Each structure stands twice: as C-alpha cells, then as structure tokens.
Amino acid sequence: MPRNRDVVLAQVLTVAQMQSAEADLIAAGATVDSLMQIAGQGAGEWVRRLAAGRSVTVLCGPGNNGGDGWVIAEYLRERGNPVKVIAAREPATDAARNARALYHGEIAPADPAITGDVLVDCLFGSGLARPLPDDLFGLLTSLAAHHPHRIAIDLPSGIESDSGQPLNAGLPDWTLTIALGAWKYAHLTMPACARMGALRLVDIGVAAHAGAAQVLAKPRITPPAPDAHKYRRGLLGIIGGEMPGAALLASMAAQQAGAGYVKLAADPAPSGAAPELVVTSDSAALLADKRMAALLIGPGLGRSDAASRLLDRALSAARPTVIDADALVLLRPAMLPGVSSILTPHEGEMSALERTFGLPSQGPRRNRAQALARASNAVVVFKGPDSLIAAPDGTLILAPRASAWLSVAGTGDVLAGTIASRLAVHGDALRAAQEGLWLHGEAARRCGAAFTPGDLALAIRPALIECLP
User: Fold this and answer.
1) What span, in angstroms and rounded, lies between the C-alpha atoms of 256 and 268?
2) Which candidate among 103, 105, 280, 331 keeps its CA 20 to 30 Å from the CA of 462?
3) In Å, how far are 153, 170, 403 from 164, measured between CA atoms?
4) Contact predicate 153/99, CB 8 Å
5) Are 271 and 297 in contact (CB under 8 A)?
6) How far apart are CA 191 and CA 182, in angstroms?
7) pLDDT tens-digit map of 240-249
8) Torsion over CA of 88, 93, 99 and 104, rounded to 10 degrees?
C-alpha cells in the first residue's frame, strides 16, 4: 500500500529522530551520497526559483550540510545560474568531499566583503549544538549583509534544532528556509521561526516516525447533513461574567464557526448583542439543558468568589467544555468534569495552571503543554506566537507562526469561541482544537494589518468556507 506522503511530510522530528530516519533509509539501500543528491537538487530547485537568474553565493561548511551546498551549486551551474561557492572550511566527510569533486564552477575565497544577489547558507545543519566560532560567525553575518536575498538550507546556521534557540547573538534573518527530509522543531518554535522567512520542505523519502509531532494542517470540515437542524448541528452554551464584551466576542466567533445554536448566559444581559444571539440571564437553566452539546466558560468571567462558584457549577454539568481566560486561573483539579475538556492558556495562564497542578514552569513549551495535558486529562492549546496543541495521549501538534497582528486584546476570546463552536458540532476535543486554531490563524491572515477582534471574528466564516469539500 503506498504511503500517504502528506501525512509523513507533516511530521516534526528531533535531531535524534531525523538521524534515525536517515539511518533507516540507508539500511534500506540508500547511501549518504544519494540522499545528499536528492536533498541538494530539491533545495537547488527552490533556490533557482527565488534567484530567477540572479547571482548566487553558496557558503559551504565542512559537514554534510556543506555537501548539500556543493550539490546545490552544481545544480544551479548546470542550469545557467551565475553561482560561486565559498568553502568556509574544507569538506570533512566523504559525502561532502564527493559532492565538491562533482562541482565544476567558481570557488571564491572566504572573503566577508563578497557581494551578490542571493546567499545560500550551508555552513551547518540541524546537528549543530555549539555556537559558531568567531571567524565563521563574522563571515556569515557579513555575507548576509551584502546579499539582499538569503536562503538557509535545513536550518539557519547558529540555531539549535530541537529548541529553536540561537546559539549566537546577532544572527541574520532569512528570506527562505528550506527544510530537508522533515520539519525540525526550530522551524515552528520561537524565537528561531520568526527569522526564517518562508518555509519549504524537500522530501528525501523518510518514513513516518511513530510518536512524532505534526504540523497543524488545514482541516476538512463537512457541511451539515441534509436533514440537520439547529440542535443536531450543535448547541453551544457560553457562560458570561463580569466583563460582557469578551463573551460577546466569543459568541460572535462561535456563530461564524459552524455551531447550529449559540446561547449566552449573562446577567445582566449585555448591550450590543446581535439580534441572532440568544441571551438568557438564567445560567442554571442553560446548564441543565440536556440538549447542550458543549460549553465555553472563561472569557470575561472575572476572578471573584462568585465567578469561582459559577465555574464549579458549569463544570459540574459534565458537558464537553472549553475552559479559557479567567476560568483557567480559578480552575482546580477537582472541578474538571471527566469529559472532553480543552484548556486554552497563554503564558501567564499556563504558569497559573502549572502551580495548580504541581508542575514545573520550565523547559520547552511543548514539554510543558504535554505535562499539563497528562495531569489534567484535557487537550491543551498553548497560545502564543508559536501556538501548539497537546493531548493526554501524547499527541503534539505545532501551528505555523501566525500573524503578529493577533497580539491585540480580544483575539483569544475569538479563538475560544471558535474552538467551542467546533466542539459543539462533533464533540471531539482534539479535532476541535485543531480546527479552531487553524481557522483562527487563517482568519488573521485574511484580515491583514491592524484588525480588531470583531474583524477577526467575522473572518472565521470565510476561513471555514476554505475548508469545505
């Protein structure tokens, strides 16, 4: 049976997992040289497209990442691109030496004053674990300053692959980063991902790795059944609190994200509610309604004793629930309903939850989210510029970096409403988290610059349309 390459190519691998995947390919008959040719030629085609006939400078290091650079340079030379290679170090592996022997173009001295149109960084790849030495750091940064277009191969040199942390201060930024074989954590993790530009992936044939993280993909959302009605499509109850605007934003997004019926419990009723939003002052009746498919509590809830009691009552209803904002700070482990729950913390709320569940607030964001998911038995959407999703079974999904314009008050309420709407539709917490996070990011992309949370909520619907068959 053929493999589904789309699924395989969505995986995110650690350095150790990538090395294991390459070893499996070699055990199956590939060689380091053949894999280097596949990777280098695939990357070379992306470089050729961006260069569009302009001059290219390829900076090669001593290892196999440098070997990829020699392959890229020969690929470009054969196709008529003006190209020169700077050998920052002599090749130190057999495959890199072989790749250099196959290159028949110009080799330039390691002169930091060299200028050109496109710089290709092949100094070091994903295996780098120590800072660049001063001479190579100076060469890289000077060449980057003298080339307006910059492409990193596999990872920008000076970035630690598994953490996304820079190993040197003052590293350049990049127009394009071309991952080889699989995505690495740094491609989707701050601070590194903010400086990588556009991301592309070259397939070298690696197989699926059991337990690997995945990149968040565009969901496939099906339309309602022909005989659907508002309750069968999902009745979502939103519990308001002391700050009504947040719950209204969540309600607006929820109405755009597919739920058949959105009902807001708020006392007093907020002014400015849309006429199609059903508002009630009786939260007890809403929570007792057996038709309620899912709940959302937290946006605008407040942190008073009354808010804490309301949270306890809402979770006691034992409905699939999205727990957001103030509710995350008030949450106690004994309150969790034992049914599908989704926690949506930002950094400050995550720290509060870690104190509540006795977890350390240290280590990579992905590890912290996975620990909380296990401890709470809930799906965790850890929000931020590098948002991710963790499930109790160990599933980990990393979202591509979204628009920085999302850094405005109220967009988290929109995300919570979107996720809750999808949870009301089908009741699958992990699926709802993925759908909601993707819709939120796509809505932000469609909004462009300087949008309001209301603009974002209204953009959820066209984002959802993009996911329909």
Assistant:
1) 24
2) 280
3) 15, 15, 19
4) no
5) no
6) 20
7) 999 999 999 9
8) 50
pLDDT tens digits, one per residue of 406-463: 999 999 999 999 999 999 999 999 999 999 999 999 999 999 999 999 999 999 999 9
Query: C-alpha angle 92/98/103, rounded to 5°?
Result: 110
Closest by alpha carbon to 309, among 329, 330, 290?
330
Q: Which tokens is 272 given?
A: 């400015």
Q: What is the 3-state secondary structure (H, E, C) of 210-254?
A: CCCEEECCCCCCCCCCCCCCCCCCCEEEEECCCCHHHHHHHHHHH
How many other CB atoms sit within 10 Å of the CB of residue 445?
14
Residue 191's CB is within 10 A of a number of other CB atoms, namely 15
Give the span between the Cα atoms of 194 and 456, in whole angstroms: 22
Domains and their CATH numbers in the chain: 5-211 (3.40.50.10260), 235-465 (3.40.1190.20)
Residue pair 236/295 in contact (Cβ under 8 Å)? The answer is: yes
Encode pLDDT of 318-355 as tens digits. 999 999 999 999 999 999 988 889 999 999 999 999 99
For the chain, state the CA radius of gyration: 25
pLDDT band at 187, cuts 50/70/90?
very high
Determine the pLDDT at residue 2. Answer: 34
> Which structure tokens are listed for 462?
């066209």
Going by DSSP bridges, is the β-strand pair 388-390/379-382 parallel, antiparallel, or unpaired?
Answer: antiparallel
- Could you report the per-residue pLDDT of 247-273, keeping only the tens digit for each? 999 999 999 999 999 999 998 878 778
Residue with tokens 């993280």, as numbered in its chain = 213
